[in-house]
Amino acid sequence: MAIATADLYDELEESIQSLPLQMRSFGLRRAFDGKIRTVRCHEDNALLKSVLSTPGDGAVLVVDGGGSLNRALMGDMIAALAVENGWAGAVINGAIRDSVAIDGLDLGVKALGTNPRKSTKNATGEADVTLSFGGVDFAAGAHLYSDEDGILVERLS
User: What is the DSSP string of 59-103?
Assistant: First the structure.
């Protein structure tokens, strides 16, 4: 990412959304950006895995897990799939696991926290729908910017 989120916000101010949630950073890419793809799922990562198994072309997968920390939605194997398929990163409104292994991957990951408990695999959820959490709308195709200071999201209107 060529520009820091603080500088980008100074330039765009209220024309860009700022996510106020205090998310933890994982992966080697502490700064990343790309077009948004979305998944809504609750404690079930089958759809997330399916989407990350497709070519990412530098996109960022935003996952709304409802803020649940009961089960991890991403582990090292799914994160490795994302790297293999060219995804820039993932923003997860939920938990991940295998955080030490993910920290060694060329991927940017923001999540609320960690939990070693794995998710269910029922393939429930929705893909490429507009998500809303933390007062921010995440629309498929909008641009997301993430670094150590936080996450900014382009407004599509």
Answer: -EEEEE-TT--SSEEE-HHHHHHHHHTT--EEEEEEEE--HHHHT
